[in-house]
Design brief:
homodimer; 427 residues; alpha/beta; Carbamate kinase; 11 helices; 20 strands; globular
Chain lengths: 427, 427
């Protein structure tokens, strides 16, 4: 019997009515002749409610206890989903992360899954039960402590279960219809993608697209699990994330993959500029060592050409806004040692990323990209690229305009029918 | 190091402020030089909130999933208590029932503890941690399913932990100062008892006193664990439940135990009367078999003397009000077979029980008891007795008057200073 793994997020499980709707959907999948395993998140905003409670009790709660607290949310939603399913006449069994065999490392708050031993799940499936698993959580190897995988971790739970059970597909249900060429709230003409490669999805997720959690895509790529991102509010087909070629079209010709997958944006970053750094070997290293010691993840880095007259240079980097204070403090501690003149902090920036596997073989992409931004009057402050991505930092208040301009320039708007295809055979 | 087990109920953990107060209390106990293990209930009304959610999703939720749901409540409170303790500079570790080694049978919703294997608790104590355990829950032997012990189960968790850890005392914190000679809301002059025997406490708990859960007292008696019932809102000494004699008084003479421990009342029962039962062998058996098959617990039974002229008799019994409908339906199903004429249901009754180990050697007790009720104008509908208890059924609206009359007649009112002591050496 085919195994389907499904994931439902908090917005699909906001209240009793939503839970009943999700239960009907799960029952349909079972009735269609599948073994069904479901990973669920906590209901609606309940995770935030628990965090608020923790804050009231302790400003800096111990991570072990915070994990113990947070995992209660999925326990509640999974039991309710199982009840709603049994109310429809199907039998369901819920399992905590620990019971489901989700083994992690011991890093509370952002544990990594290192193994899945789904013995109880396969047993329950063999008995004809629908299986509901608490997402976002696991149990640490050896020490058997309850851990959580961090925000978005339920996506990863679902993919990890799909890999361990050799499922045919992992369906990620969310409140949008799939992966879009841009955020439809900013670009109303954004188009839903039918297919996207893991590589492109990874770049989009890393660039601010919130539809799939980065780690879940990495996991899916490693174990070659096709992900189907779709809406829990409709029955439309969503977006398939896979590296396998699309099935042949009706006339037998393979559907050409578009060059550009989409435009992602990110408002969660800030920029730090270290001004007047002596242009000597090892100074940049000292600066980034200080920031790294403060456990801060740096994204983009730019070092200006040294003004030879002064022998001084400026170094800018971006980082999560929430790490801003920590980074500035860490830098001030090394200011005397490194000898720079000032630290500037700027949280009014935005990041725009263009992602597409076709960039590799289409040198025209970057010209079109920068021309679109220039035409829209958007100034570029920093640039970084990968083989299949170009990212730029702009002023935050220009970000929406920039996204729309780039989206249109690459023919991604749905009104234009087809995406621009550079070179190649086209269609 | 002495081991103290403490239990805090939902009313002591209603919100963040209450949790912080409980944490200070726990920290004090640790600072006084004890190893501390704490069993906690779910916060305030959160158990009822979860039950409401379950009802919205499924009118008859599967017991396994209901247990999974309910256990989330203690998970939340124990993590918050552990956080609040660590915020005071002490280290705390919380454990679920399963992690704490609370092994039960597999009866969901009212599982019985069959073993406690507290390996992780003793390990954590050895490392100097304060241990917080989720009350009310365990894991079933063999099948490893999450179970709950039923309402009041956290008392039992605490006593079972105390027994397994060979604790010096099990402190049950509640919102009253201890065990009283009667419910102070009905009898304002009720006195707090300094000591009470397990046997008397069992009878009080079985007769409607809510201060301790019946099963926890049975457990404490079996393992000879002294229970200290006290308030989480004050530092007053509460009531010690133990079979060991009281320590000697300042002049070397043992404190005489009072004859009467207290007066309990219960409004949760109803009365069923089966009218016109043919007075033949086996008819009563058929009636109670029908009721037992419906999983109903019967309390008191009265069969009237048969009216020889008709050859018919009436049989009355009491049962939990909530089981009333099920009992009446079960009886109607056997009406034709047994041949009785009608079933009457009466939920306007009250039960009053007088409990005291001194009854055994003091024949005057029942005379005083019935005279007090007669003087108060309270009619008695049913009577049942044990060696150390007399219970009567009265009209529900007379119950408060009856409790006060009996309380006064036995000199239990605090204004009178001392309890009446029949015979013996007295004081």
């Amino acid at each position: 019997m085919p195994i389907v793994v499904q994931k439902y997020g908090g917005s699909s499980l906001a209240d009793a009515e939503s839970i009943k709707r999700v239960a009907r959907r799960i029952a349909e999948t079972k009735k269609a002749g599948n073994d069904v395993v479901v990973a669920v998140s906590a209901m609606g905003d309940s995770t935030d409610d628990l965090l608020d409670l923790a804050q009231e009790v302790s400003p800096v709660p111990p991570p072990r206890e915070l994990d113990m607290l947070m995992t209660a949310g999925e326990r509640i939603s999974m039991a309710l989903v199982a009840m709603a399913i049994s109310d429809l006449g199907f039998s369901a069994r819920s399992f905590t992360g620990s019971q489901a065999g989700v083994i992690t490392d011991g890093v509370h708050g952002k544990a990594k899954i290192i193994d899945v031993t789904p013995g109880r799940i396969t047993e329950a499936l063999a008995k004809g039960h629908i299986v509901i698993v608490a997402g976002f959580q696991g149990v640490s190897q050896g020490t058997k402590e309850i851990t959580t995988l961090g925000r978005g971790g339920t996506d990863t739970t679902a993919v990890a279960l799909a890999a361990a059970l050799r499922a045919d597909v992992c369906e990620i249900y969310t409140d949008v219809d799939g992966v879009f060429t841009a955020d439809p709230r900013i670009v109303p003409s954004a188009r839903k993608l039918d297919r996207i490669s893991n590589e492109e999805m990874l770049e989009l997720a890393a660039s601010g697209s919130k539809v799939l959690h980065l780690r879940s895509v990495e996991y899916a790529r490693r174990f070659d699990i096709p992900i189907h991102v779709r809406s829990s509010f409709s029955h439309k087909e969503g977006t398939i994330v896979t590296d396998h070629p699309a099935p042949e079209g009706p006339e037998g010709d393979a559907v050409e993959a578009p060059i550009i997958a989409g435009v992602a944006h990110d408002r969660s970053e800030a920029k730090v500029t270290v001004v007047g750094v002596p242009d000597r070997t090892g100074m940049a290293a000292k600066i980034f060592e200080a920031v790294t010691l403060a456990q801060i993840n740096i994204d983009m880095i730019v070092q200006n050409v040294s003004a030879t007259a002064t022998g001084l240079t400026d170094i800018s980097f971006t980082l999560p806004k929430t790490d801003g204070t920590a980074a500035v403090e860490a830098l001030q501690r090394v200011q005397a040692d490194v000898g720079f003149s000032a630290v500037q902090f700027d949280d009014q920036i935005g990041k725009l990323s263009l992602v597409g596997a076709g960039m590799r073989s289409n040198p025209g992409v970057s010209a079109t990209f920068f021309k679109a931004l220039a035409d829209a009057g958007v100034n570029i402050e920093m640039i970084s690229t990968s083989e299949i991505r170009i990212s730029v930092i702009t002023r935050g208040d220009l970000l929406d305009d920039a996204v729309r301009a780039v989206h249109t320039a690459f023919g991604l708007d749905s009104s234009e029918g087809e995406a621009v295809v550079y070179g190649g055979t086209g269609r």
